[in-house]
Specification:
about 400 residues, mainly beta, Neuraminidase, 2 domains, six-stranded mixed beta sheet, six-stranded antiparallel beta sheet, globular
Length: about 400
């Protein structure tokens, strides 16, 4: 076969450039679609599926997603999910309503527990019958992880961490049963890896608290106590570096048995908020190496419990403006989200309409009473993160 002529070579080059331009254009168009449309497009074309599952596409889509407050409530076998924008509103008028960005319902899997942890770069760690699970609210899929250790029969607790350098998710699992297991060392698993748990060595034995974990800049923090029950008041802060998988402990200045503890990221610093009624104590970590903390006591300018409306508010995180977000435990029509500014000791209320109203209830077959909040997650962003079958993580569409 002879060498191609100059004209044939040019035409071939033009076809190659045209095909590349065509793919780049499809890429940009897909990036601007809603997440639901992108997930549906994966079933329409192999090209769409290939493009939207690439790591660069997933990262670009997540970067365009604005942080939102994700609120869940469960009725019988259905899980209702809706999100509210966390962007600070310029108008401080409490009559201004929050706009529901996204709302859907799905069948709720049996024996799933949504603990008050957090959304980690779009994914949420839940538990089913003591086993760790990963939920992606964007794709509405749950993944079942391998059991960390057979000897952890009394139960375990798992936290999700994210390393922004390598864009890697890792799950840290620890035993939390009353009986001491034969293999008490924590274990770590990489999502998208080989599905095998790795033992974390050289860590002092401790009991993790199920609530209040927080991942900031590649470091996973959670509160813990010694393994002996008589020493539970001697709490500490555990730090798990997601990339290096090193786990260390930081001494804490409080010694409490009462009060609800929450870890938040406020002013680029880690803060433990201990709530006891309307009084809150804020302990801010100033120097992790020296175990130095600063303290501030604040009395909330609003009641967390309203006996008239029988409404209780719970801290669910901090928005980009540094405001503490308080979400009601039951959703009436309408309900409010309270934003508390700890610097100015002021607050504002924002009404949320269109979720618990008569029309919404009729469309979804809900009763007239309050809808109890299952959980709420602050700073949630949409992600298209998915796992392949060969990675031994089973995805189930609910």
């Amino acid at each position: 076969m002879g060498e191609p002529q100059d004209g044939e070579m040019k035409r071939g080059s033009k076809r190659s450039k045209g095909a590349s331009l065509h793919v780049d254009l499809i890429w940009e168009v897909l990036l601007r679609l809603p997440s639901k449309s992108i997930v549906q497009s994966r079933c329409m074309s192999k090209l769409f599926s290939s493009l939207t599952t690439q790591p660069d596409f997933i990262r670009s889509f997540a970067a365009r997603s604005s942080p939102c407050l994700l609120i869940l409530f469960e009725v019988e076998s259905k899980l209702f999910v809706f999100s509210l924008s966390q962007q600070q509103q310029q108008n401080k008028n409490p009559a201004v309503a929050h706009v529901v960005d996204r709302s859907y319902s799905m069948l709720c899997p049996d024996r799933y527990f949504f603990f008050n942890s957090e959304s980690v770069h779009g994914l949420i760690c839940v538990e089913k019958s003591g086993n760790p699970q990963i939920w992606n609210p964007t794709t509405r899929r749950f993944s079942t992880l391998p059991i960390p250790a057979r000897s952890w029969r009394e139960g375990s607790v798992s936290f999700l961490g994210y390393d922004p350098v390598d864009s890697t998710y890792k799950v840290l699992s620890l035993p939390c049963g009353e009986r001491r297991p034969r293999q008490p060392q924590p274990r770590a698993l990489t999502l998208g890896g080989n599905g095998l748990w790795r033992v974390i060595q050289g860590v002092p034995e401790h009991v993790p608290f199920r609530h209040g974990a927080l991942c900031v800049n590649g470091v996973l923090y959670y509160l813990a106590a010694p393994t002996r029950p008589e020493h539970y008041t001697n709490q500490s802060l555990a730090c798990f570096h997601v990339r290096s998988e090193k786990l260390s402990m930081i001494k804490v200045p409080w010694n409490l048995t009462s009060g609800f503890r929450s870890l938040v990221h406020c002013g680029n610093k880690l803060t433990c908020v201990i709530s006891l009624g309307d009084d809150i104590n804020m302990w801010t970590l100033e120097d992790a190496e020296k175990h130095e903390w600063s303290h501030r006591h604040v009395c909330l300018p609003f009641p967390r419990h309203n006996p008239v409306t029988k409404t209780r508010f719970t801290l669910k995180g901090v928005n980009g403006a540094g405001e503490f977000m308080y979400v009601p435990r039951a959703l009436a029509n309408p309900f409010h989200i309270i934003y508390f500014d700890p610097k100015g000791n002021s607050f504002r209320r924002c009404v949320v309409d269109g979720v618990a109203d008569d029309q919404y209830r009729r469309q979804n077959g809900l009763w007239d009473g309050p809808l109890r909040t299952t959980s709420a997650y602050s700073n949630h962003v949409e992600t298209l993160m998915a796992l392949r079958n060969k990675e031994r993580l089973l995805w189930r569409q609910i």
